[in-house]
Specification:
Elements: E1 8-19, E2 22-33, E3 46-59, E4 62-74, E5 91-101, E6 104-106, E7 109-128, E8 131-147, E9 149-155, E10 158-173, E11 187-188, H1 193-196, E12 202-203, E13 211-223, E14 230-241, E15 251-252, E16 262-263, E17 273-279, E18 287-293, E19 300-305
Length: 318
């Protein structure tokens, strides 16, 4: 039976200072790993230190966002799942994530063009392909449009306000060669509503997916016209690739440990269709269901629910 005891214990020390819409921070982030030889786990990297500045500035209708960090990534003690596997890269990474957006719209619609970049420079403890120093800059252009239409309706004996919210998002990111072994904090995103509308198929900094894609979806919500409480939400979304995606998470280690893993391009033009819904009935808490379907594979569904438990008020003491 799997243990329910936490096996990753975090020791974290953080100092932060805010000024004029910006935040500066310094952090030491170390993991203590409790391994079980019968089922070892792969621990995240230690960050010692992590130094950064991030902020958002708005001017003349534009929105500028920037995050820049310096991280020292180290291997936690006893942190490997496979003791015979090749050592993971360690070293220092500087990165900058920046974007400039100009939203247009009114109360019923928005269109937001955005130009962004992901820049990173590495100084590694051990060379990869004969190099300790690596750097790259990857730009992205996107156009995100969102409409919200409303109407008053009568459903099941009650007045409701129904919305119809179509959304289209176009993303263009050029291909840049990347070594899949450099993944200090990168991981493929789960398949969900947020990831289908994300510019990058990976979380973190190290991996940036090339993209020529269009995501289209529509959501409808049923609201109480008196207080705006949401009773029901339904939606469907799908993504289309105009060309193969070469930077993917489907990678196989090379038989030569000195060579980078080989990654299989994503050639499926249409993603699975994601159908989702959530409801909040009688204040019992939200219940959410998600299904994804593909022309060849069978449907896959997941359901989650939350119930809010509110303790009764405590009588004041005399």
């Amino acid at each position: 039976m799997p243990s329910i005891t936490p096996r990753l214990l975090l020791a974290d020390l953080t100092a932060r200072r805010d000024f004029d819409g910006w935040s500066s921070y310094a952090r030491v982030h170390r993991w203590q790993v409790l391994q079980d030889d019968a089922s070892r786990i792969e621990a995240p990297y230690d960050r010692a230190p992590q130094l950064g500045v991030r902020g958002v500035q708005r001017f003349g209708g534009f929105e500028f966002a920037l995050e820049t960090e310096l991280n020292r990534f180290a291997e936690p003690e006893n942190g490997r799942a496979d003791l015979l596997a090749a050592a993971r890269p360690t070293g220092v990474r500087w990165h900058a994530l920046g974007s400039l957006a100009r939203p247009f719209g009114s109360s019923g619609w928005t269109v937001t063009p955005r130009a962004s970049f992901n820049a990173a420079s590495y100084s590694l403890d051990q060379p990869l392909d004969g190099r300790r120093g690596l750097s790259r800059v990857i730009p992205t252009l996107s156009l995100d449009s969102h409409w919200q239409l409303e109407r008053d309706a009568h459903w099941f004996g009650r007045d409701v306000r129904q919305t119809l919210e179509p959304r289209l998002m176009l993303v263009s990111t050029p291909y840049r060669e990347q070594d899949a072994r450099l993944a200090f904090d990168a991981a493929p995103r789960d398949f969900n509503f947020e990831s289908l509308y994300a510019e990058n198929a990976f979380s973190g900094v190290d991996r940036v997916s090339d993209a020529q894609q269009l995501t289209a979806g529509v959501t409808t919500r049923f609201l109480d016209p008196a207080n705006g409480a949401e009773a029901l939400r339904l939606g469907v979304v799908q993504r289309y690739l105009f060309r193969d995606q070469r930077i993917t998470g489907d990678c196989t280690a090379s038989t030569n440990p000195l060579l980078a893993p080989e990654c299989t391009p994503l050639t499926q033009r249409f993603s699975d269709v994601l159908i989702f819904g959530s409801t909040n009935i009688a204040g019992a808490g939200p219940s959410t269901a998600r299904c994804s379907t593909a022309p060849i594979r069978s449907a896959r569904c997941a359901r989650s629910s939350e119930r809010a438990i509110r303790p009764a008020p405590t009588a004041p003491s005399d």
